Amino acid sequence: MAQSEKNPFELVYKGAITENVDGKVNIHPVTYKLNGIDIAANVYTPADYDPTKKYPAITIAHPNGGIKEQTAGLYAQRLAEAGYITITADAAYQGASGGEPRHTDKPQYRTEDIHGMADFISQYPGVDTEHLGALGICGGGGYTLKAVQSDKRFKAVATLSMFNTGIVRKNGFLNSQVSTIQERLKQASDARAQEASGGEIVYSGVDGITDEELAKVSTLFYRQGYEYYFRTHAHPNSTFLYSTSSLMDLMAWDATDDIDLIDQPLLMIAGSNAQTLYLTLDAFPKATNAKNKELFLIEGAAHIETYWKPEYVNQAVNKLVDFYQNNLITTNL
């Protein structure tokens, strides 16, 4: 059941913090400017947090259509329980963050969001900037792969259920729309022209689904995604809408371009039953210069199930904690 109306921090994941208690993990809603836009974020601090001490920190980029109160918040809380200061922010133009037109979804903005989280958390009391890691989930995973190529403040990087948004927007999910690439680019171009002339903004995607429509969704990934975002973990700031003109940028973008620039330790986690697994399997071998790189499959897990299902989340968190412990904390940087 969605918990945004019950939870004082609007968190909708199971086991979410309901109040800040001394000696336990706490959550701190914050805002900051990024390229003139107000960014809404949550910082999680470990139990017995002391701002005069030094802690490793991790940025967490949320999925496409997601916001900080959903799975990104769950992983931020779990990693804070393991001793990390964590931050997860709503993407610019999305969620509770500012930016117009709403639901603009350009890869350069999503990548800049990750640099912005690094900017902010590096100034946060108690953060050890020499031990800064990154985690990206779904679309946030693809954007995190891009961000760490050039941002060497990040000393270790991990992805969960990585979704290479540009490739999917260009070729279609499971390469199902290759024959219509030029047609869809024309639609995106026309949408931009309409915006530029002061016309109505055109959107792609969905902002809700009826039970009848849901029953007809044949693709497991999308069906479980709609159930997650519109039923079990719904939040009013979360939507699958994005401006059609964004496709001009998205369809010409690939998270794996220049991926050989990643020389940090890399962990990529995905469910063995995820229909999106092909995207992780494509990216992983291309990261030829990543140190201590590892591919970890969660047996039996589908993509969306890694967002919330306790047995799969626990496996992912345990692997992440082990990875960051070995490559972020104990490694002589």
From TrEMBL:
Protein biosynthesis found in the keyword field: no
Xaa-Pro dipeptidyl-peptidase-like domain residues are: 36-294
Write out the entry's keywords from A to Z: Hydrolase
Question: InterPro entries recorded for this chain?
Answer: AB_hydrolase_fold, Polyketide_trans_af380, Xaa-Pro-like_dom
A Pfam short name: Peptidase_S15
State a single Gene Ontology molecular function.
hydrolase activity
**What protein does this entry describe?**
Alpha/beta hydrolase
**What is the source species?**
Arenibacter antarcticus
